[in-house]
Specification:
The chain is mainly beta. The chain contains four helices and 29 strands. It has four domains: 23-77 and 344-392, no CATH class; 83-94 and 125-224, Galactose-binding domain-like (Jelly Rolls), CATH 2.60.120; 230-340, Jelly Rolls (Sandwich); 404-438. The protein has helices spanning 2-16, 45-48, 371-375, 404-437; strands spanning 26-30, 38-42, 60-62, 71-74, 82-86, 89-94, 99-108, 114-122, 126-134, 142-151, 156-164, 171-179, 184-195, 201-206, 216-224, 235-239, 242-243, 248-252, 259-265, 271-280, 288-300, 303-306, 310-311, 318-323, 335-340, 344-348, 355-359, 386-387, 396-398. The strands form seven sheets. A six-stranded antiparallel sheet has the order 17-18-24-20-21-22, with no helix packed on it. The longest helix is centred in the last third of the chain and has 34 residues, at 404-437. It is globular and about 90 Å long. Residues 4-18, 95-100, 103-107, 112-117, 121-126 and 404-409 have low confidence and may be disordered.
């Protein structure tokens, strides 16, 4: 019986000391500014790639005695998205030719024949097949279009978003089909991979034939992310990506921190390969386009030039890089790295130094406090002092093999079921022993 009790203790004790710093996968020393108080800390890449919980919920900051310090999430050092409202310019289209009413035709004889038509011209009825948006002055990448619309009832309305520099040649950007059971004003949001629209127009067109009522767009707005340089963001090297033939490479990231950009570096010889970056949350979902562009490696004047990172928006953990089939493809595996969305925390340095930042524990509860609760009384004061972590090389993360997450889940369920069966057996045996003694 004692042997069973010891085994049960081995299962339960780790749950009781889940917040001990030794139970986290990665621990990084933190140098605080002397004087204590509230301080701000940029989360290093080693912790970002160790976190297994959304929102860095498994990140803690401990003092020398292993006590967790009060901590809150802080805004990152990257500029936020902004919304720019645009004037919706109507694109008018005629549904019939110019008509003439009250027509009379006269042909006069003689050598010179004169044909004369008299009547009153009447303008043909028109319809609105689309709108034009002037986005030429927007320098930052655009990743979302929002439309305030009136839609006809019970009809499928297919919207297409296109871009052009000269109003003659248009390239597709996004598409969306809408349906409303009742005629109503709606806000339609259309997301697409970040696109630079500087010097270009946008147009939104729809199927305008045989509508039971017109489509009306009252206003439009685009969402932009400032074009900050991703090369300054935390970086991690990805190893173990799986080649899927010569034209595709797939991998799943083992951490939960959002990825802001993907580096695809051609590793051998000068080459130019158009690529698409796709993503999905699990194998049951279809791939969706995250970004597209050109990966290149060129040698000029003895220097090697490479393509910049591909910026991503709302990227899932499973990614796929597809090369244009008209090229040689990935005859040599490219060098893959990710740029992580910067994150920062605010903490109260009230314990005994040295301090340690820890992260990487699946299932850890979220211990972050609201930022306002920590910042009360500091409004209008100088910016918070900045704690630091020692510099370190870019961490290397191993891609998760396909299906490994599902296998890990099966093993976890098996362990839980086994523990439950063990507890039930112990309860049954204790009850039998008690019944025997009575």
């Amino acid at each position: 019986m004692r042997r069973w009790a010891r085994f049960l203790a081995l299962l339960i004790v780790p749950l009781l000391v889940a917040d001990a710093s030794s139970n986290y996968a990665v621990r990084v020393p933190v140098a605080v500014v002397p004087g204590g108080g509230l301080q701000r800390l940029a989360v290093p890449a080693r912790i970002l790639t160790a976190s297994r919980m959304p929102g860095l919920a498994d990140v803690r900051l401990f003092d020398a005695g292993g006590q967790p310090m009060p901590m809150a999430r802080a805004a990152g050092d990257t500029p936020a998205h902004r919304v720019i409202r645009l004037r919706a310019l109507p694109i008018l289209g005629a549904v019939g030719a110019l008509t003439v009413t009250g027509v009379s035709l006269a042909v006069e004889g003689g050598r010179a024949r004169v044909v004369r038509m008299e009547g009153t011209p009447a303008a043909a009825s028109t319809t609105l097949p689309g709108i034009l948006l002037d986005t030429r002055a927007i320098a930052d990448p655009v990743d979302r279009l929002t439309l305030d619309m009136d839609l006809p009832r019970g009809q499928l309305i297919a919207l297409t978003v296109e871009g052009s520099e000269d109003l003659a040649t248009w390239r597709p950007i996004a598409a969306k089909t809408l349906y409303r059971a009742d005629a109503a004003a709606v806000d339609v949001s259309i997301a697409f991979p970040p696109s630079t629209l500087a010097g270009q127009y946008l147009r939104v067109i729809w199927n305008a034939n045989r509508l039971v009522s017109p489509v009306v767009i009252r206003s439009a707005a685009v969402s932009t992310a400032p074009a900050s340089d991703p090369s300054a963001w935390p970086r991690a090297i990805v190893r173990g990506a799986r080649a899927e033939g010569e034209y595709a490479i797939g991998f799943t990231l083992p951490f939960a921190t959002p990825v802001a950009a993907l580096e695809v570096g051609l590793s051998l010889g000068d080459a130019v390969i158009p690529v698409r970056i796709l993503g999905r949350d699990d194998d049951a979902q279809p791939w969706r386009l995250l970004a597209e562009g050109t990966a290149y490696r060129m040698t000029q004047a003895g220097q090697v030039r490479r393509n910049p990172p591909f910026r991503l928006t709302n990227a899932p953990r499973t990614l796929r890089i597809e090369a244009d089939p008209r090229t040689r493809g990935f005859t040599h595996p490219p060098e893959i790295a990710v740029r992580l969305m910067p994150a920062a925390v605010i903490f109260l340095a009230g314990g005994r130094p040295p301090f340690t930042l820890a992260g990487g524990q699946a299932g850890a509860p979220d211990r972050f406090l609201p930022a306002a609760s920590l910042l009360q009384g500091s409004a209008g004061l100088a910016p918070l002092p900045r704690a630091t972590t020692p510099p370190a090389p870019d961490p290397v993360v191993e891609a998760v093999p396909p299906g490994d997450g599902r296998r890990r889940g099966v093993w976890l369920w098996a362990v839980l079921l086994a523990a439950t069966a063990l507890l039930a057996a112990m309860v049954w045996r204790l009850s039998r022993q008690r019944a025997a003694t009575t």
